[in-house]
Amino acid sequence: MTRAGQPMSPASAGQVGMHAEHTGLLLGRGADSDAVLLRLFRPQPTRVALIGGLWLARVTVFRALALGAQVFVRTSDDRRWEGLGEVGVGNPDRVRVVTGGRPPVAGRVGEPVLHVHDVEGQRPMDLRPGEAWQTTLTISAQLTDTAADALAVADAALVQRMWAQQAVYVAARLGIDPEASSEVENLPDDTVALLSDGQVRVAWISATDIEQQMFGPPGRL
Question: Which domain of life is it from (predicted)?
Answer without folding.
Answer: Bacteria
